[in-house]
User: Fold this.
Amino acid sequence: MTDVAIGLTGLGVLFVLIAARMQIGVALIAVSFVGLWVLKSWNVAWGSIGVIPYQFAANWVLSSIPMFLFLGFISFHTNLTSGLFRAARAWLSILPGGLAIAAIFGSAGFAAVSGSSLACSAAMGRIAVPEMMKHKYHPELATGTVAVAGTIGAMIPPSIILILYGVIAQVSVAQLFLGGISAGILTALGYVAVVLIRVKLNPDLAPLRDEPIPMAEKIRALKDTWPILSVMVGIFGGLFSGIFTPTEAGAIGAFLACIVATLRGEMTLERFMKAARETMTTTASLIIIAVGASLLTRFLVLSGAGDYMSEAIIALGANPVILLAGIILVYLVLGMFLEPIGSMLLTLPIILPVVGEAGWSLLWFGVVLTKLLEIGMITPPIGMNVFVIKGVVGDLVTTSAIFRGVLWFILMDLMVLILLSAVPQLILYLPTHFG
Amino acid sequence: MISIGKALSGLVSAASFISTICIVLMMLHVTADVTFRYLLNQPLPGTLTIVAHYYMIIVTFVALGVAEKQNAHITVEVIAEMLPPVVQRVLGWLSFVLTAGVFMLLAWRGFEIAMSKTKIGAAIEQGSDMIPVWQSYWAVPIGAGLFALVAVYKLIVDAFGTRNGLSPQLDDLEMLHD
Amino acid sequence: ADQLSYAGGWPPNSGPTGALENYAKSVEANSGGDLTMKVYPLSLLSFAESNAGLRDGLADLSTILTPYFSAEFPTLNMISEFSTLMELDGLSGERSSLAFAGAVSEYVLLNCPACQKEVAAQNQVYMGAGSTTSYALQCVVPVTSPADLKGKRIRAGGAYWARWAEAMGAVPVSISINETFEALSQGVLDCTASNPAELVNFSFIDVVKYVYTGLPGGQFTVPTMMNLDRWQGLSSADKAALMKSNARLAAEMTWVYFEEANKGMADSRTRGIEVAPASPELVAMNQTFIEEDLNVIVKSYREKFGVEIGDQAIAGMRELATRWTKLIEGVETVDQLADLYWTEIYSKIDVDSYGM
Ligand code: NA
Ligand code: NA
Assistant:
């Protein structure tokens, strides 16, 4: 058996284990361990499960994940955000699927203070899913919307993926951030369109309120948004006035949320500990999967299976449209299994020279790549954003139901991708005019 | 079996408490670092290292068993839920076996590493300080070992139909019915 | 052909990764195709994972940034810290990294049994080292006198720079390199003590206004190590071929950083950033600090890690730094540098007994 064949077989086994409802983190670690053993030696396999799990988790930038999760959990348990949703409901209730649309706008707003799509889904999932369920939204629509809206978190700056890409491809991170803004907004608008269309086609998905809301009540609802807005202003203000860095923003945000909740008399020790406990279990269950994906990446790199899959598609040819379609396909396939940073690290050594050869802008490609990697966050079988939402809803909605809810949005994502590819100026306008 | 479950419950509760405290400390420590840096021009030495090597490592590994007890680990039901109940039950046992096996391996390996890091007194240089980190390596064998134990216990309880001494919490459900 | 794997911690398409790829070509050429090498940029091992990964055989060769592993490589770290020697009169100069890479490689490869033992304890063998150019102070605010340094928040990426900042009355701040750009642009930091290559590599050029050379100094040593079992399993001919290429890698790596630093400073000037030697007053203060600090280094490595060879290493490195400053005088190209390293250091190693 060649090395590449071992790698591909490993992926096959992984697929079977995950389909057989093994825990994903466990399956990833098991396949990588046995794969490295077969491929190299017992020592290599034994060595990797020693060094990689600890080193992966001992990461300062990664610490923003539990902190943004904690911010979300605190906000939820102390009802910091319910005002936002009362306001959103009041103002958007005339629209079909108003709450789902509010969740998308909420994610876009939260994206501006969150570097990762996971933290964004986690926070908005906590806030919006229970609200939608309470209002008899179809579970698939409710959970699907929030899972996909989280991906806006990695498009609108700050973004951990864009920072890593900028460092690797040697593109200015500031320029990438500017490029990400329009792609993020376009994505959000696309999702809003999906909600409107779906609810139009099937009004039962999101029942409308019976009576219209008087203007006075709408204005009153706006006033209730101050708690969450003051936390957001604190995070933004601190970031842009040089008080703290994006990684530190999560902890500061959580701290601010605690203070605001205490001032409103909503904080109890019980709620505080509950938020911390949920943060801890969610963090552990997410990071152990990322650890597994990180191990799998080494297995795929050493076996050459990652290279093999990418090159097979790139070999498609000289026609730029076919080439781009090939690249998109590679990332959609990789995105099914790998976490974004893993698949980015795995493929950039091969993809970047191709991008250079095709004469594409590295800045444009970075944003398109982020979009592609983020689609991977919501595709089965391993869709991290979906799992986060699953963590929020517990046993009430199955993972496959959430994946079904996501499907519609993936179609829109593909259309947004085509638009961004056909009209690169959509991404390049802000960096060229304001960079 | 029930008394073993109670004992295990005690261990998991302790793990849960320690990890929860780490989340809170992470928030306070980073906030204090930023405050001291901004107001007094005096950052707290070693913040990055302590956050990465202590809080993150403890939360990641020590909380694994807690997540297992609460069924918070992530699986995909897409295909499995279409299978007959008997097959699903057997797959469930297989899952416990695989989890226990993988994490016993990680615990054993983590123990070896923790021993060697303790022997050399592993430390990280941050600024002009050396911050000892060898202690944090013990979180891996302890956390992975606890995770494996919980999986083994759940396997025995489920396979032999004995009463479960581990009481799963219902936080997530309660949340939705608030 | 026998294929070696090299796990590098730098991103693809970066200068240092290019140096590793040239190393791979050189290994193949020098061994007549008997040895080949595949370079894995960042995908196989990160810098933090490199030591354990190399020890356990995940890769055959890797760049080991030893300051990441304080307890494992105290002797090598102490010798690297002596790079501040290159700021002293008679040794300083824009090409001092070419000399320091020669000096540190010669010392470790030929004169330091304690270093060899330390590396072997990690199941590795030392293959020589390149060096970055001297660190320069890169600031968003002007720093022209010792008084200006007081209270300034300065990113310190290692022990020397932190001690330096404290001694100058500034505030050393630990911040990850990937966050430094934002920290500078938002005012979390006033300055960073960084390699001038990072002006371009981490976009500092978009935010700093002043670059001061000769302050605080200090160079980062970039050693390559090989898995010990893998080395011992090679034939004499393959070992000789590899050793010849090691001279080339040390030269390529040092040259890449040298050129990137020059480019960083040239591009900065083009942007209207002030790039100049620090004021004489500051340089004098810096040199006084360095002389005192050398003894602090020796003392602290003895106390913290039981490194006993400090005083003799300082004397040895002073002598070699002087010798190498003369040797590199006529060097104009990377090929000449590689030849010089080969003749003066790497050719003198008996590959049959080295690392056995
Ligand atoms: Na964001
Ligand atoms: Na996916």
User: Anything to note?
Assistant: Residues 236-270 of chain C form the longest helix (35 residues). The interface with chain B takes residues 67, 70-72, 151, 153, 156, 158-159, 162-163, 166, 171-176, 188, 304 of chain C (CB under 8 Å). The radius of gyration of chain C is 20 Å.
